[in-house]
Amino acid sequence: MSILGEFERLLADLYPYRVPLSIAACAIAAVLLALVIRRGWHRPVVGWVNSHRLSSVIAGVLFLAVAVPAGNYLLSPLWERTTLVEANPLDAVVTSGSSGTSGDSSEMASPTPDAGQAEPGRAADSGPALVSQGVFRGADDFHTAEGQALIVETAPGQFVLRFDNFSIRNGPDLFVYLSSDPAEPSADGVRLGALKATDGAFNYEIPPGIDISELRYAMVWCDQFAVLFATALLEA
User: Fold this and answer.
1) Distance between the two ends of the chain, CA-based, in angstroms?
2) Local structure of 232: helix, strand or coil
C-alpha cells in the first residue's frame, strides 16, 4: 500500500478529533513562532533571503510549481461535487390489453414500482428483476457515503449494478467494484469502471459470466492510494 494511502488512513482515524487537534496545532504553532522570534532564530534565514534574493525567488517558484498541482490533485476532490441521474432499469413499462385495444387511459402502459418498492426475485423474463440490494456505508468518519446499491437483472443472465439516491465524499482515482471481501477488492472481484459522480443515480453493466452470488459487496475504492471509501452488503 502506498505511503499516501497510509497517510490518508491516518487522517481518517484522526478526523473525529479534528476540532481539538486543530486548536492544539494552532496553539503549538503560535508558541513556536513566539519562541523563534524571541530567540532571534529567524534572523539568519531572513539575512540569507535578503542576500540571495534571486535564489530565494527561484526556490519559491519551484516549490509552488510542485505544491499547487499536487495540492489541487489531492485536496480539490474533497470539495468538488458532480451529479448524474441515469434512467432506472426497473422503470420498464408493462402494457395491458392487446395491440388492438383503443386509446382508453385505463389501457395505457403503467410503470413498474420504483427501487424502494420492487420485489426481489421477480422473474427476469417478465421484465427487470431486483435481485439484491444494500445500503452504502462510508468506511469511516472521514470517508462518508449514503444511498442504495441494487443488482437488477435486466434480461435473463444480464445484470446491472444501480447506485440510487447516492452521495459520497469525493476523492482521487475512485472506482466501483463488486467484491467478495468487504475490506478491499477481492481477487475474484470485478472492476466495473470509474465512479461516475459523487451524487445522483447511475448504472454499471456487469460483464457476462460473473457469478454475482459470490460477489456480495458493492464497493467504492481509491485505486491509486488503496483506500476504501464505501461498501454496501448486497442481500436478496
Assistant:
1) 34
2) strand
Q: Mind listing the pLDDT tens digit for each residue in 118-135? A: 455 554 557 899 999 999
Q: Which CATH number fits domain 84-233: 2.40.50, 2.60.40, 1.20.58, 2.120.10?
A: 2.60.40
Q: Is the pTM of this model over 0.70?
A: no
Q: Helix (H, G, I), strand (E, B), or coil: what is residue 13? A: helix
3-state SS class at 84: strand
Three-state secondary structure of 142-203: CCCEEEEEEEEEEECCEEEEEEEEEEECCCCCEEEEEECCCCCCCCCCEEEEECCCCEEEEE
Burial of 60 (0-12, 13-18, 19+ CB in 10 A): exposed
